[in-house]
């Protein structure tokens, strides 16, 4: 469903060329959920924008259901927009504050020539029901909704065009703990009932582990490790994935008190001046000489469906 | 011995429809060298509690009852000028967004020194203590950092500067309002480790406000869980996670995916929403959503009772909980 090959997105700025995404490859099969994990500046949100053609790649190819995202124009671009939709962390970003929810959803239907008038009203009701909201929510404005309700509307808006793929960019990060569970459960049930393919972008390893079939970890514009959800989250191989695994606090004091107390030092370097060799080497606890000079390729591991970019694994 | 003692604190916010009770009788104490995690969802009153301690409630909000004692002195009985001296002097705060506390037009060294001078530390001594404070929070080359403007620093460095500034006056109490929420996890890890070091080094009493139960599990000695302006449960961290005594704490813990699940079923949901503070029910505020409710729960609001290691505002002891819902 998604095929990304050596995709790059570089930006020219006064500080030089920022390599936000710098040669990323992955595939997502139909019905599969891929989790994209990483910290700020790793390129995960830029990757999301590339997939939905909000940004165009400066190199490489991105195919979504066979559509070449880099070159899609006109009818092809409209087909792309009906195939893949983006759900934002902050649903305010996709909702007009001065419009009632029903009008916002009806507008999406009209723009894509899917339904008007009574048919649109009926469809808006269906969409709200699909995301577990009462029809009365249609008459409200975004600010009158709770955070969880707003995110459900954000999902309904994305589903209005009957897409086959959702790119979910931190969809539960801004929500209260108890509301997160509700939205996660909704995503699981929609995936099953509509046969959706997800790209789930998050910094929350726990949620990624809960939802995804496979996980890819990004650092400074590159994928450093990718594999099955239990491989990557429970038995990480790349030193960066291991550091992330240790850094994420887990709601279990027994696990927390058993930690080594080792913390990853330093911060993510400037993507306009990535370090030579392995991009993680300045922070890596086990870096050697070759890590400082030679960039490690993303290589298949003997334990099956896993890729790791590290000289020392 | 408790450094901070909050006794039956009440706070209200003025609205068009009258005064909204946002904090409804909170009692909490923190010892020197102890970190207490104050957990709650939006609207639970956790931030109002913190701002009450600092005397920084927004316009329209006020403390309407109770006492806030620091080393036995009631902050609420002080005059405004004395209160200002205590703020920063004995009680300091760090925020979610460090830019809240930083002036973008001043170098960070000048800002820390200004805070010291406002509390009577003079020129050369203020400069010396500024550099020492910057060094103590683990920032390399303190002189260079001191000459930097906030926008030249990363988010993690800014939060370290705010911590340096907060601790330069050697406060006894540190209020931390989600100071790591906006940071990347590896930077969050560094800041959590730093605060823990400083707690030990200075015997600080820390009130750590967060919605992240993972952060609480890592850093807090005790936890207080807030719901609808009250503390639903307060307990030592290990006890609360191992055997929560309030159904709300249990439900919150159950809603988080376990890092060891091999089969991934639906996450247990609480259902419903927190009560409208303008129309609180007469009984337990959690009763309408509670899986363990009994007929009496809707009639009167429970006061905290000691059960196990915990103080819990619940009528129904764990032994009576229905097993299916005893998650957490």
TrEMBL record, chain A:
Keyword set, alphabetical order: ATP-binding, Nucleotide-binding, Transport
CDD domains: ABC_NikE_OppD_transporters
Molecular function in Gene Ontology: ATP binding; ATP hydrolysis activity
Region feature (Disordered): 251-275
Highest rank taxon of the organism: Bacteria
SUPFAM superfamilies: P-loop containing nucleoside triphosphate hydrolases
Gene Ontology terms describing biological process: peptide transport; transmembrane transport
Entries under InterPro entries matching the protein: AAA+_ATPase, ABC_transp_ATP-bind, ABC_transporter-like_ATP-bd, ABC_transporter-like_CS, Oligopep_ABC_C, P-loop_NTPase
Keyword ATP-binding recorded: yes
Domain ABC transporter: 2-245
Cross-referenced PANTHER family: D,D-DIPEPTIDE TRANSPORT ATP-BINDING PROTEIN DDPF-RELATED, TRANSPORT ATP-BINDING PROTEIN
Family label: Belongs to the ABC transporter superfamily.
Full protein name: ABC transporter ATP-binding protein
Organism: Actinocatenispora comari
UniProtKB/TrEMBL annotation, chain B:
GO molecular-function term, one example from the UniProt record: ATP binding
Gene3D superfamilies: P-loop containing nucleotide triphosphate hydrolases
SMART domains: AAA
CDD domains: ABC_NikE_OppD_transporters (cd03257)
UniProt keyword Nucleotide-binding present: yes
Coiled coil: none
Identification of the protein by name: Dipeptide transport ATP-binding protein DppD
Organism: Actinocatenispora comari
């Amino acid at each position: 469903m998604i095929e990304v090959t050596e995709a790059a997105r570089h930006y020219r700025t006064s500080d030089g060329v920022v390599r936000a995404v710098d040669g990323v490859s992955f595939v997502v099969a139909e019905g599969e959920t891929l989790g994209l994990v990483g910290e700020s500046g790793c390129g995960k949100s830029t990757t999301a924008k590339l997939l939905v053609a909000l940004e165009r790649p400066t190199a490489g190819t991105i195919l979504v259901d066979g559509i070449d995202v880099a070159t899609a124009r006109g009818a092809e671009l409209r087909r792309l927009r009906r195939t893949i939709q983006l759900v934002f962390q902050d649903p305010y970003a996709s909702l007009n504050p001065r419009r009632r929810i029903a009008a916002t959803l009806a507008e999406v239907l009209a723009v894509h020539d899917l339904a008007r008038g009574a048919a649109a009203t009926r469809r808006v009701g269906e969409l709200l029901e699909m995301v577990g909201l009462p029809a009365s929510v249609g008459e409200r404005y975004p600010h009158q909704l709770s955070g969880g309700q707003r995110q459900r509307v954000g999902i309904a808006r994305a589903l209005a065009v009957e897409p086959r793929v959702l790119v979910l960019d931190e969809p539960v990060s801004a929500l209260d703990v108890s509301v997160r569970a509700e939205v996660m459960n909704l995503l699981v049930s929609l995936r099953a009932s509509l046969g959706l393919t997800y790209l789930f972008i998050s910094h929350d390893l726990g949620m990624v582990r809960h939802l995804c079939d496979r996980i890819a970890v990004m650092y400074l514009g590159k994928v450093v490790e990718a594999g099955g959800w239990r491989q990557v989250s429970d038995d990480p191989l790349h030193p960066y994935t291991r550091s992330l695994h240790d850094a994420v606090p887990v709601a279990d004091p027994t696990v927390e008190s058993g930690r080594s107390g080792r913390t990853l030092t330093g911060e993510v370097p400037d993507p306009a001046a990535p370090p030579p060799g392995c991009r993680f080497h300045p922070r890596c606890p086990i870096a050697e000489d070759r890590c400082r000079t030679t960039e490690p390729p993303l290589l298949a591991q003997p334990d099956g469906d896993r890729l790791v970019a590290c000289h020392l694994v | 011995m408790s450094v901070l003692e909050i006794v039956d604190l009440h706070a209200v916010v003025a609205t068009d429809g009258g005064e909204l009770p946002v904090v409804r009788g909170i009692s909490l104490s923190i010892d020197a060298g102890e970190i207490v995690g104050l957990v709650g969802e939006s609207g639970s009153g956790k931030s109002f509690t913190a701002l009450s301690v600092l005397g920084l409630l927004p316009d329209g909000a006020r403390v309407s009852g109770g006492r806030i004692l620091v080393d036995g002195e009631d902050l609420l009985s002080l005059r405004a000028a004395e209160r200002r001296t205590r703020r920063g002097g004995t009680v300091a705060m760090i925020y979610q967004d460090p830019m809240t506390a930083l002036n973008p037009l001043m170098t960070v060294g000048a800002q820390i020194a200004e805070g010291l001078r406002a509390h009577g530390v003079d020129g050369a001594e203020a400069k010396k203590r500024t550099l020492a404070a910057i060094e103590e929070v683990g920032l390399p080359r303190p002189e260079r950092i001191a000459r930097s403007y906030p926008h030249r620093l990363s988010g993690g460095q800014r939060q370290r500067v705010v911590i340096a500034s907060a601790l330069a006056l050697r406060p006894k109490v540190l209020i931390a309002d989600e100071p790591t929420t906006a940071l990347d996890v590896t930077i969050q890890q560094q800041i959590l480790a730093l605060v823990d070091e400083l707690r030990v080094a200075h015997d600080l009493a820390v009130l750590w406000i967060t919605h992240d139960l993972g952060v609480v599990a890592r850093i807090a000695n005790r936890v207080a869980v807030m719901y609808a302006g009250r503390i639903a449960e307060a307990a030592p961290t290990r006890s609360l996670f191992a055997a929560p005594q309030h159904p709300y704490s249990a439900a919150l813990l159950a809603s988080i995916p376990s890092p060891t699940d091999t089969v991934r079923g639906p996450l247990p949901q609480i259902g419903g929403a927190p009560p409208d503070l303008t129309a609180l029910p007469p009984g337990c505020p959690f009763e309408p959503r509670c899986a363990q409710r009994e007929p009496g729960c809707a009639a009167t609001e429970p006061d905290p009772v000691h059960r196990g290691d915990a103080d819990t505002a619940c009528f129904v002891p764990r032994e009576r909980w229905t097993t299916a819902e005893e998650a957490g």
